[in-house]
Structure formats: C-alpha cells, structure tokens
Amino acid sequence: MTTPKIKQPGCIEQRDSNYLTLRTRVLAGLLSCEQMAELMKVAEEYGRGVVQLTSRVGVEIPWIKAEDVKAISTRLAKVNLPVSGTGSTVRAIVACKGTTCKNGLFDTQQLCRELDQKFFGKKLSAKFKMRIAGCPNNCVMGRTNDLDFIGQCVPHISDSCSLCGSCVEVCPGKAIREKEGAITIIRSQCFNCGKCAMVCPEGAISSIEQGVAVFIGGKFGKQYRIGQRIEGVFPIEKAVEVADRLIRYYEDHAKPGERFGDTLDRVGVDRFPNRLTVRQ
Length: 280
Description:
Layout: E1 11-13, E2 20-24, H1 33-46, E3 52-53, E4 59-64, H2 69-77, E5 94-95, H3 108-119, E6 130-133, E7 147-157, H4 166-170, E8 176-179, E9 182-185, H5 195-199, E10 205-216, E11 228-234, H6 239-253, H7 260-267
Parallel strand pairs: 5-6, 6-7
Antiparallel strand pairs: 1-2, 2-4, 3-4, 7-10, 8-9, 10-11
Helix pairs in contact: 3-6
C-alpha cells in the first residue's frame, strides 16, 4: 500500500514519506544571530536537531511532521525566515559576497534585496531562478539560471598612464600589453574584471562602462542550458527594471510548466534581445 503524498507549501516530501523537509528563504545569504538561534530551537523542538544548507544559500530543516508546519512557519516568520521556495514561483535569489569581497564590483546583497522584494514568490508558469555575481569570477556559477547578473567593469586607459606595468602584471586575461611606449587593451581577451583599475597607482584606468552583464534562459539538472548574453552592460540601477521586463515577457509567452529557456527556444531567442528596451 502506497503512503499518500503530503502537500505543504514550502516543504519537500522526504524519502520517508511520513516526514517533510521544511525550506526557508535566507535573504541574500545573510543570517543574523537571532535567526540562527531560532532555527536551532525549531530543529531541536520539531525535527531531529539538525539543519541542512542548500545550493541556493538557504536553510532546510528535515524530519518535520506535516501537522507542525503551520506552527513552525509562524515562528520563523517572526525572524524574517519565510517558509517558502518551492513550486512554480520565483525562487530564492542567490548573491555572491561581492558586497564585501575585494573583487566585487557592486553591492550584490543590496541588489538581491531589491529583486527579492519585488519578485520572490511570484507565481509563474514554472520555477524561475536568479543569481547575482559581483565580478566575472562568477563564484555563484551563474549562466545556468533563468536570469543571471554578472558584474562588469570595461576599462579605459588615459594619457596620464606612467607605464609602470602594474596593470599588465595583474590582468588575468593577458589583455593588457605595453607596446611602443603605450599601454593597450585587447578587448577580445578582456574579462571586464576591473583588476587593472584597482591596482593602477596613478588612477589612469577608469571604466567606460560599469554595471552588469545579463544572461537569460539558463537551467541546470537532467537537461541543462547555458544562458545567452543580452548585448551590452546595464547599469546596476536598471537591473530590477531589466528583470521586470524579462519576467513580463516570460509571463506573456510561456506555456504551462515551460521554463524560460524553453520558451526562448520556442519563440526564438535570436529575436528576443531586440525586444528588451531599457533606458541606460
């Protein structure tokens, strides 16, 4: 005899189908001491005294009984840990630690908060995942999500360059060369990581453009798809507007249960970037 499936929002049925794993959303991957203390108490009182971390920088509590979900949800909501993140919705948004990392080109956690406030939990045709990388190192492994933002700094070298060679030494793509008494950038080899500007002692290197590259339509799992880049570098302050337009497009064109990348493949991904008009 098969045990009936247990359905609870924000919960995943375990292999032992008498129990659920309860999923919480951790905003921008940051947990306060108060939140950690409450998670510990809940895991002790209702589970088996353990929590597990997810690949989307969230926290799950296994071995939860269905009848306890409501009480747990109420307690965790008081410390801003909503029980959610399942189903055909915008899932928890992942951000790297670019806010504090020396390589970070912008405040990744602030952008994560802004995107979370507007989109988290929004119902769509299928699950929709976003990741935010503060620089081209891409530690959060973007480009396998429906929407990815990756920090960019497109460098420019001014005439005040003293030819000290610091930028040549630090460039990971070997894109900066000294030739005939001048420093040049080979654009096709430049990662737009901004390291050259960070080490320039004269302040002779600035950015022509600084913001985010936008990748769309990626997914991971049994079948994966690498996201395609939309041409250009978008200002950080336009990132939420970019996400809004993309999600609206998805809402307008997706079939039930169809991931964003599959919608793009069906509708025509080559035509899509031309329809994204964001004032830069």
